[in-house]
Amino acid sequence: MKRAILSDIHGNLEALEAVLEDVRALGVDEIFCLGDIVGYGPNPRECVDRVMQFNRCVLGNHDQGALYDPEGFSSGAEKAIFWTRDQLEMPNGDAEKTRKRWEFLSELPRTFNVGPFTFVHGSVRNPLNEYVFPEDVYNARKLERIFALIERYCFQGHTHVPGVFTEEGKFLSPDEINGKYVLPLGKAMINVGSVGQPRDMDPRSCYVVLTEQFVEFRRVPYPLERTMEKILSIPELDPFLAERLKEGR
Ligand code: ZN
Question: What is the spatial order of strands in the sheet that 188-191 belongs to?
């Protein structure tokens, strides 16, 4: 069984298409999404339509923000969320499709399990909103508490920074492990990175392929100039949202 785990697509259609092409070439059996399909990017509708074809998906904080009243976002992010909601509400000639998109988003669970694997957007302690950053290795208490709630392997996104948190309290970046991590006998927390807005100073899309034995981090280049142009042409989207794609931050 080979699964592709994608997270934080954020309405970036060019990135999502490039990743799906890579996924197809690898011949995976299932595709999972860890939330934040929308928010920040210029193509929320198209991205939701593609994720609706995936096998499983959890709710992200930006998806929730588009559905209900956004809380705890920066003013730039909030503006993008309201614009995203307008895009999703626009019938666009197909009221039935609009209804199905809303239904899909509003029915997303916050977490699900498949065998020894747990899937969330943020963390198992607070699936929607908690960030687990690489710097949290200096906050042993926080990591210990989260690990206590994990059964075996937890897959998450939200920070847009890919890597592995070990039960011993270490963070391993994909580079440090040559992009491949053998699942340990104990527990592990794996951040799959972001498809549509990477923030680890590598602008290429990131996702992982999961088998029963190991996790492989994949990086995929995409025509980000096209996404940047779209963002810059939409007044409601902060130009910084285009800039950061180029830099991967
Ligand atoms: Zn996100």
Answer: 111-114, 117-120, 153-156, 188-191, 163-166, 171-172
d(C-alpha 31, C-alpha 56), whole Å: 7
Rg (CA), the chain: 17
Ligand 1: centre distance to CA 232 (Å): 20
**CA 130 to centroid of ligand 1, rounded, Å:** 11
Structure tokens at 59: 């709710």
Structure tokens at 223: 């025509």
Whole-angstrom distance, CA of residue 146 vs CA of residue 133: 13
Q: Report which of 91, 108, 83, 106 is spatially closest to residue 33, judged by C-alpha positions.
A: 108
Digits of tens for pLDDT over the chain (249 positions)? 999 999 999 999 999 999 999 999 999 999 999 999 999 999 999 999 999 999 999 999 999 999 998 888 988 899 999 999 999 988 677 889 999 999 999 999 999 999 999 999 999 999 999 999 999 999 999 999 999 999 999 999 999 999 999 999 999 999 999 999 999 999 999 999 999 999 999 999 999 999 999 999 999 999 999 999 999 999 999 999 999 999 999
154: CA distance to ligand 1 center in Å? 17
Cα 246-54-4 angle, rounded to 5 deg: 60
Rounded Cα distance between 83 and 234, Å, is 9
Q: What is the helix (H) or strand (E) element at residue 207, kind and residue range?
A: strand 205-210
Q: Quote the ligand 1 centre to 13 CA distance (angstroms).
A: 15
Q: CATH topology for 3-247?
A: Purple Acid Phosphatase; chain A, domain 2 (3.60.21)
**Ligand 1 centroid distance, CA of 175 (Å):** 22
